[in-house]
Amino acid sequence: MSKSQRILSWVIRSAGILAAVLVLLPSESSARVFFFQSAPVIPVPGLVGYWCVDGPVPDTAVQAKDSSGSGNHGTYTSGAIAMASAPTVPAGNTKSFSLTQASRQYISVPDSPSLSITGSMTIAAWVRSTDTTLQQGIVEKWDEPGATNGYMFRLDTNENLSFSICSAGGPNGVSTAPRAIPLNTWTHVAGVYANAGASGTITNYVNGAADPSVGTGIAPPTDGSYALQIGDDHGSNAFSGNLDEVRIYNKALTANEVNVLKNGQPAPTGLVAASGTNQNVLTWTAAANAATVNVTYSILRGPSTGNYTSVTNGVTGTTWTDTNPGGSAQFYAVVAVSVIASAPSNESSATATVAPPPPPPPPRTEKLGSRHMCGWSTASPDGMAFPVLGALLAAAILLAGTRKIRGLG
Question: What percent of the chain has pLDDT over 70?
Answer without folding.
Answer: 79
